[in-house]
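Data availability (excerpt). The following record was deposited with the supplementary files.
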Amino acid sequence: MKERQRLESAIGGIRDLETQLADNVELIAMGEEEGDQSIVDDAERAVRGLKAQVAERQVEALLSGEADGNDTYLEIHSGAGGTESQDWASMLMRMYMRWGERSKMKVEVLEQHSGEEAGIKSATILIKGHNAYGKLKVESGVHRLVRISPYDSAARRHTSFASIWVYPVVDDSIDIQVNESDCRIDTYRASGAGGQHVNTTDSAVRITHIPTGIVVACQQERSQHKNRATAWNMLRARLYEAELERREAAANAEAASKSDIGWGHQIRSYVLQPYQMVKDLRTGMQETTPSDVLDGKIDPFIEAALAQRVFGGAVEVADID
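Predicted structure:
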């Protein structure tokens, strides 16, 4: 039923676009025939308005993976470089949270380790929404920032790295068996805001899956029981994502590219000085307003990367004149 609903929605959306286009083309012809320019202008405006809907349907068509429709976890880890890299990691965290909000998705911070002076060492956020994993899966990799560091008294230019790892939330239709004897469970005091309770109880939970070395942690809730349940769900999701990577050679190559958070492994560069540009090194996609990108406007990069995965190159929505 879920697959049927997905197909009906996709086919119905395309048919609706076809109908709107045909109706407006007919209106343009009628307006020209009757010499009524206002009808022509309104119809042309409506046709141009279809471009955004076409772009959205085009992205939907690129998402056909087994878990593309699922909610997603997104992990952020700062690279070497101390405070500068930790600040960069916090900027990326804000970027993805803003993207989630712009996309009408629900965003929750599950775990966060703050830096000593500023920024974060690592964080895990949960993004809930239609095709959240399908869209964000192409964001996995190393992201590089070049700027004049506000933490350098000599105002020198610094290069910082942070890594992003995206993996899907496992829903009830996917059965992932985890042997508890293969796991080590640690509890500790959560860090960050939350009042006296956070500082006095071991409510945070960390689970280590010994055979694979996968580690997950959650400190979102005040209750250790709830954090434990969330951590188990995160572990099952990580194990499922590992299985998906084993099935897809492309995903295996991508996982290998995430081995080091540093030079030669980045998927995207964000340059703030001496010029301003964001460039995706996989697709060649560029944007000259980094402030907009860092405010969550990353859909063009996502669309280009998805198109490259499916077709081996970027696919553009043609301009409607």
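Summary of structural features: The domain at 72-171+263-311 is CATH 3.30.70.1660 (Alpha-Beta Plaits).
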